[in-house]
Amino acid sequence: MALGQNHEIHERRKGRNYVVLGLLIAFAVLIFAVTMVKMGNGHMMEGFDHTFRASALPVTEATE
User: What does the alpha-carbon distance between residue 38 and residue 46 come to, in Å, rounded to a whole number?
Assistant: First the structure.
């Protein structure tokens, strides 16, 4: 078999590889889009970092 000739199984495998590539790119775009939507809403994004957060305290009204 010459180096320039591809067997039928290689052609099918190449097609499947393109499908997997497309799925990986679609997944990366989905994760990017979800991240942008979550960051773009303007909500405070606070993680659990074992420190005091004033925003976690209950809201109390000032009394005069």
Answer: 12
This model's pTM is above 0.90: no
| Interval 18-39 mean pLDDT | 93
Helix residue ranges per DSSP H, 1-64: 8-40
Pair 28, 21: CB distance under 8 Å? no
Give the tokens for residue 2: 């010459």
Q: How far apart are CA 52 and CA 46, in angstroms?
A: 11
- Residues 7, 9: Cα–Cα separation, whole Å: 5
CA dihedral sign, ordered 44, 47, 55, 51: negative
Amino acid letter, 23? L
